[in-house]
Specification:
single chain, Immunoglobulin-like, glucan endo-1,3-alpha-glucosidase activity, about 475 residues, signal, binds 2-acetamido-2-deoxy-beta-D-glucopyranose, Glyco_hydro_71, globular, alpha/beta
């Protein structure tokens, strides 16, 4: 029962419900997926058939957007966390959805928590704005705060499913969730009977129950929330994806991609390693799995509290007590994802017409001791690697491509880069601090030379508060070839 206990404990303690709960669900249910696949009797046909057949239907990439959760930590203190789009106007939605659409995203998953009037009004506004922008939407019920009520779920679903922006799978309107075991198989079956295409993340305790013919076999899709992040001190692999795929079968499994997870509140204080170029590596993994996958969800647009946002840090509200977001832009991660989104959907590598570079790093060495932080060092601090990560995109045709990365007085050059994305890492030894410089060369001529100013970002050896969030920058060659 440790898994369930963790779910409940984290749901109660976490100001930011979503990832924190799910990550624990996955980690506790499935600590060694590869071993479990071997030890349980899974038909060898299930896995082998996945490699060869492309799942039918058009592929789509979703963006998870959080409308609100108000979360009172009354047990600890009288703190209330209010995020994200409270007070959003139609124009605010148009602005955000236009950016999301421009990245190649097909639909947004509108995460709704508490059932109240302003929130259902925001759902309506979002659907209307989406229709005007030309992007689709569906509701993702968040049962860590939405009432565990099948009829209420159905009424929210029914009042939106016929709107023009509603995302449909082969004509059937989609609905998704974060959690929802509490509705039971009967509850979810009634929702399906209303004409819904189900893609929930339900915290089942045994993935074999998702197999066709088992209790949850009627789900059209099941969505792995926690599969986006490595759950320990090792790079992200696809072991967990493959474990769920082997139970669900190709075309019933949906999964997630994300760049980062750092949260730093009293009672919820942890870092999941974003090392090994997590975002680029995860996209490569999903492209590798594409014959079995129809849907992938990006986590998230605006969860500032857990640091996996790609929205501008000024979009909407941050939860009270969030000290690690301002000055740490992530918008370049969404821009970088465009290439991979197109690749995932089309199955072929997009051509790169000019050089660009995306780069990120944390502000301090992982072993830093903050001088004025009562929350303390986050768990997972010792999993972090001190490096500047960069992905350099070189032109598909023509010329040699090389790059130089620099932090303080540590620098390294990388030659003979390949056409398309190149993952580069500059290890930092703890003796070199200061500004970051990235340079890219075409045929020996410098086409990118970018140094964010010392006021914008510096890698430093002192901190008042802990910050394991990433500063993300980018630059593009102005000379097109
Ligand atoms: C695998 O599937 C094929 C046809 O789909 C079937 O003939 C064969 O018996 C199956 N093998 C096993 C081990 O289930
Ligand atoms: C849910 O709706 C059904 C059908 O309208 C109704 O029979 C049932 O009593 C409702 N349940 C609750 C708990 O309101
Ligand atoms: C780099 O900077 C550090 C201090 O930040 C200094 O101790 C070290 O000597 C410098 N190395 C070089 C090669 O200048």
């Amino acid at each position: 029962m440790r898994g369930l206990y963790l779910v409940l404990a984290t749901a109660i303690l976490s100001p930011l419900h979503a990832v924190s709960v799910s990550v624990d669900v996955i980690a506790s249910q499935n600590p060694h997926p590869a071993v479990q696949v071997k030890s349980r009797a899974v038909s060898p046909n299930v896995t082998s058939s996945l490699q060869h057949r492309d799942v039918p239907g058009q592929k789509a990439v979703f963006m998870h957007v959080i409308l609100i959760f108000k979360f009172s930590l009354t047990l600890i203190n009288a703190f209330q966390f209010d995020v994200d789009v409270f007070g959003y106007t139609f124009d605010n939605w148009v602005r955000d959805l236009t950016t999301i659409k421009a990245a190649g995203i097909d639909a947004v998953a509108l995460n709704i928590g508490k059932a109240n009037d302003w929130q259902i009004d925001q759902v309506s506004t979002a659907y209307d704005a989406a229709a005007s922008v030309g992007i689709s939407t569906f509701i993702s019920f968040d049962y860590s705060s939405f009432p565990c009520d099948t009829n209420l779920t159905i009424s929210y679903f029914n009042s939106n499913k016929d709107k023009p922006a509603q995302f449909k799978v082969d004509g059937v309107p989609m609905i998704s969730s974060f959690l929802g075991l509490c509705l039971g198989t009967d509850g979810w079956q009634s929702i399906k009977n209303q004409g819904a295409y189900l893609m929930p993340f339900i915290e089942v305790s045994d993935a074999q129950d998702l197999q066709v013919g088992r209790p949850w076999g009627f789900l059209q899709h099941w969505h792995c929330w926690g599969c986006a992040w490595p759950q320990g001190n090792a790079p992200k692999t696809t072991d967990d994806d493959n474990w769920y795929l082997s139970n669900l079968g190709a075309g019933r499994f949906a999964t997630t991609v994300s760049a980062w997870l750092y949260v730093h509140y009293p009672g919820n204080n942890r870092y999941l390693r974003g090392d090994d170029h997590l975002l680029a590596t995860r996209w490569e993994q999903l492209i590798g799995l594409r014959s079995s996958l129809r849907f992938v969800e990006y986590a998230t647009w605006n969860d500032f509290g857990e640091s996996h946002y790609v929205a501008p840090t000024t979009s909407g509200n941050q939860p009270a007590g969030t000290t690690w977001v301002n000055g740490f832009p992530h918008t370049a991660w969404l821009d970088m994802s465009k290439y991979y989104i197109q690749y995932f959907k089309s199955g072929s590598a997009p051509s790169v017409t000019t050089e660009s570079v995306y780069f990120w790093l944390r502000p301090n060495p992982h072993s830093i001791q903050a001088t004025g932080d009562s929350v303390g060092q986050p768990t997972g601090w010792d999993w972090a690697r001190d490096s500047l990560y960069a992905v350099v995109f070189c032109r598909t045709t023509g010329g040699s491509c090389s790059a130089t990365l620099k932090v303080g007085n540590t620098s390294q050059s990388y030659s003979n880069l390949q056409p398309g994305p190149n993952k580069l890492e500059l290890p930092l030894d703890g003796n070199s601090f200061g500004t970051v410089t990235v340079q890219v060369f075409r045929d020996g001529g410098k086409v990118i030379d970018d140094t964010p100013s010392a006021n914008t970002f510096q890698y430093t050896n002192s901190a008042v508060t802990y910050n394991f969030n990433a500063f993300v920058g980018s630059a593009t060659a102005s000379i097109c070839g």
